[in-house]
Design brief:
With 181 residues, this protein is α+β, with helices and mostly antiparallel strands. The protein is built from four helices and eight strands, in the order ββααβββαβαββ. It has a single domain, classed as Aminopeptidase (3-Layer(aba) Sandwich), CATH 3.40.630. The chain starts with 9 loop residues before the first strand and ends with a strand. The protein binds coenzyme A.
Length: 181
């Protein structure tokens, strides 16, 4: 783990929202939410359709715990102690100071500002530690709620990549947004 990231395993976003680095012990809670939300999440994410048994989620948590702060950094977002979703750096490129941000929420935690506030807090923490200066959000062009997160946070729309994202059997156009701090 990169040294400065040791201090970034827990990030307080506000009185109700916390980010905690992923660990194996969260697997049962995370698995319950993924299974409950699988169909909804599969509209814009490729991986949920491959999650079936608790072992799948345990493996994901174990791998992500090991790679935290190296090539990626996955956080569990809690709202008043309840697991609300996941906010992550899906890729961390320290050589170039670039972080690719991803997120998803359980349906009952949408529209509370959790992701927008958590992403802003992540940017503050990683830019403040001088680890990352270019923050990137990539989302399917037709994913309106995800586009709204990037736009709400002042990310600049840099362009569209045609058919750059495979979701299920469909290739979707992808919009790239970036914020440089
Ligand atoms: C993308 C996704 C995370 C966006 O969720 P979201 O709830 O719209 O985003 P936020 O948590 O930032 O909440 C913003 C909403 O809460 C409202 N809100 C309420 N209180 C707020 C606060 N204190 N601060 C900011 N926004 C607040 C905002 O007005 C906004 O609602 P609006 O779009 O109707 O104006 C969610 O739709 C999702 O999980 N989708 C499925 C997975 C997915 O597509 N992931 C992204 C792949 S690229």
């Amino acid at each position: 783990m990169t040294k400065n990231i040791e201090n970034l395993q827990a990030i307080a976003v506000g009185p109700s929202i916390n980010l905690k680095s992923i660990s194996q012990d969260v697997a049962p809670r995370l698995h319950d939410v993924i299974i409950r939300e699988k169909e909804r999440l599969s509209e814009f994410l490729h991986w949920p359709r491959y999650i079936n048994s608790l072992d799948d989620t345990i493996r994901f948590c174990a791998t992500s715990e090991k790679s935290f702060g190296n090539s990626n950094a996955i956080y569990i977002a809690e709202f008043n102690g309840e697991l609300a979703g996941v906010i992550s750096f899906n890729n961390l490129d320290f050589a170039n100071g670039i972080g690719d941000i991803g997120y998803w929420l359980a349906g009952n935690h949408e529209k509370k500002g959790i992701v927008s506030n958590a992403v802003e807090a992540l940017i503050g923490a990683y830019a403040g530690s001088r680890l990352i200066r270019r923050f990137v959000i990539k989302c399917a062009s037709r994913n309106r709620p995800s586009r709204a997160v990037a736009e709400r946070l002042g990310f600049k729309f840099e362009g569209t990549l045609e058919q750059a994202e495979k979701i299920g059997n469909e290739y979707l156009d992808q919009r790239i947004y970036a914020r440089i701090v």
